[in-house]
Specification:
Restriction Endonuclease, seven-stranded mixed sheet, At1g16640 B3 domain, 35% helix, 3 domains, alpha+beta, 17% strand, 13 helices, five-stranded mixed sheet
Length: 403
């Protein structure tokens, strides 16, 4: 089945749970959890009867079909809850919800090569209120990911969304629990309510809310990214929710408003990580133009060149003194684009937030002369054999200083 047909077929009456597979979801990092993580809020929305169970590790079985490959399994929805029950000396107290019993790496959902892939779980419900069946699409390339994200907005590593496909604009505006960086309408810059700010303006406001100058750069980067997400949601709600509540005169007006929201989300996601990295470089005493060039025109347009574009273009400057950094929030298929950037350098660096990679794909990446740069906390999601070969953001910047 074509993905566009699949999305249409699983629209009305289905609940979508959409996420990117991490190394802990697949078998990429040697985890024995063997199944995609489902946040408890979503899990108990799918299986409300399990929340009332009075025994350890409540379970339910469900038919699951992976239409993209295809594959059929009778899988198990499990609430691992020994944290709340007196079980004999558990190895570790658990309170998490997962789908399991996929049959190992033969399943596209557990295949290490699926790490980083965007996945849509579409659930149908039975008469008792629990999910009775699930159809799944594991995106196989960037084109399919773009098709899904045109419906849901961008889905970044470590984040997820639920989606009533006929839920309309109000569904686009569902927000997380209020956090420190979520601002009330009166706390937002008033000019933002008249004209939506640029990504750079939002990042500057994030720095104001989260200066974090004493934190190590890896933690600072992730904290600010979370803050930006919350701030963006605040602004989106303040600007778009009144329009949605006022209603629309025509379907065309509604679709235009929804498309504006989705395109704005995608634009923010596409530039966010590199804008945060630029600000952190400046905070860490790297001078723009002298120590780095942001968005250079040479070298097939990488995101950063160190020490600067002029050094890269100087044939007398030793290549080992020149570094480049590409920035991609996810890289499952996109890492090959980096091979075309500054191809004359012995090593290219790629900053990412992706949560894991298969060992086979990691070998392809390293054989292509690309080294991953990943915030320290996210490196835990990679296989143990891979972790020593990944640079933290702090370690990458130390390499730059040593040149």
């Amino acid at each position: 089945m074509d993905l566009s047909d699949w999305l249409e077929e699983h629209s009305e009456g289905w609940l979508w749970y959409v996420k990117r597979l991490s190394g802990n979801d697949t078998l990429a990092n040697g985890s024995h959890q063997a199944g995609p993580y489902v946040p408890k809020g979503v899990f108990f929305r799918l299986f409300p009867s399990l929340k009332e169970h009075t025994h350890a590790n409540a379970k339910a079985e469900i038919d699951l079909t992976i239409d993209s490959h295809p594959d059929f399994r009778r899988v198990t929805a499990t609430w691992y809850n020994n944290k709340y029950w007196k079980v004999p000396k558990p190895n570790r107290p658990r309170d998490e919800t997962r789908l399991t019993n996929f049959g190992g790496a033969s399943s596209a959902l557990l295949d290490p090569e699926s790490t980083g892939a965007l996945v849509v779980f579409a659930f149908a419900f039975g008469s008792n209120g629990d999910a009775k069946a699930c159809n799944v699409w594991v995106c196989r390339n960037e084109i399919e990911e773009d098709m899904v994200e045109r419906e849901t907005g961008p889905i970044e590593p470590g984040r997820w969304t639920t989606w009533p496909p006929d839920g309309g604009l109000l569904a686009l505006l569902q927000t997380a629990v209020r956090a420190d960086c979520r601002l009330a309408k009166h706390e937002l810059p008033q000019q933002w309510l008249k004209k939506f700010p640029s990504g750079a303006e939002i990042v500057q406001k994030v720095i104001e809310l989260r200066p974090d100058s004493v934190l190590m750069v890896d933690k600072r980067l992730l904290r600010r990214r979370d803050c930006e997400f919350e701030l963006f949601q605040s602004l989106e709600e303040a600007v778009e929710l009144p329009r949605a509540q006022a209603g629309f005169a025509t379907i065309a007006e509604f679709l235009a408003a929804a498309q504006t929201v989705l395109q704005r989300r995608k634009a923010r996601s596409g530039k966010s990580l590199e804008l945060h990295m630029r600000e952190i470089l400046i905070e860490e005493a790297f001078q723009e133009g002298k120590d780095f060039t942001y968005q250079p025109k040479s070298g097939n347009n990488p995101d950063f060149i160190f020490p600067n574009e002029a050094a890269y273009l100087d044939a007398t400057c030793p290549r080992e003194r020149v570094h480049m950094l590409a920035v991609k929030t996810t890289f499952k298929d996109r890492w090959r684009q980096v091979t075309e950037e500054c191809s004359d350098l012995p090593t290219r660096h790629l900053l990412t937030l992706q949560e894991g990679v298969s060992e086979a794909q990691f070998k392809l990446i390293t054989d292509a002369g690309i080294r991953l740069v990943v915030p320290e906390k996210r490196i835990e999601r990679y296989a143990k054999d891979i972790r020593p070969h990944i640079l933290t953001v702090e370690a990458f910047m130390a390499e730059l200083r040593a040149v």
